[in-house]
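Thought: the user asked what Pappalysin-1 SD scarf domain-containing protein looks like in 3D. I have the sequence; next I should run the structure tool and report back without guessing.
Action: structure_tool
Action Input:
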Amino acid sequence: MNRPILAILLSTLFSSASAQDTLLKQWASAVVTRSSEYGADSWAAKQVLGEPNTMTYGDNGTAWASATQNGVAQSITVSFKEPVYASAVLVRETFGNGFVTRIFAIDTAGALHQVWAGQDKTQPNYTVNFIATFPKTTYLVKAVKVVIDPNHNMSAYEEIDAIQLHGTK
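Observation:
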């Protein structure tokens, strides 16, 4: 085989592989479902969509909060524009930090897979990007479900400003 042609083929092969392995970080684009929400506009589930817009710690209507301050576990499920092989989920916490208990990935067939469970050790008084990492999924992820403990801080609502999915194509 001609060397220049071989070089072009190898270059194309490696650039395609690296493009597929490029980390894609995307903010939630749609709310699939939520267990509850405090309001129809302020503190609504739709407040988690897109890039963060709550810059100060505290009770802000620009973040999602469940309908009640305390009680049973709450959750929000959001989807993303492009399915990816996921490796992390970022949850921007803006009030009552330390409340994420489980994260589920939802594949393109709609099946739920628990990808993270544990103790969220983020501290209050600051907006925090809690990042749950896990081994890269072997299936494409189109949505995630974040489960929170509303009893984590009995004197505060637990609030989420944004959710981001990390993965490769």
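Thought: the tool returned a structure. Summarizing for the user.
Final Answer: Structure for Pappalysin-1 SD scarf domain-containing protein predicted. Residues 3-20 form the longest helix (18 residues). The chain has one domain: 24-168.
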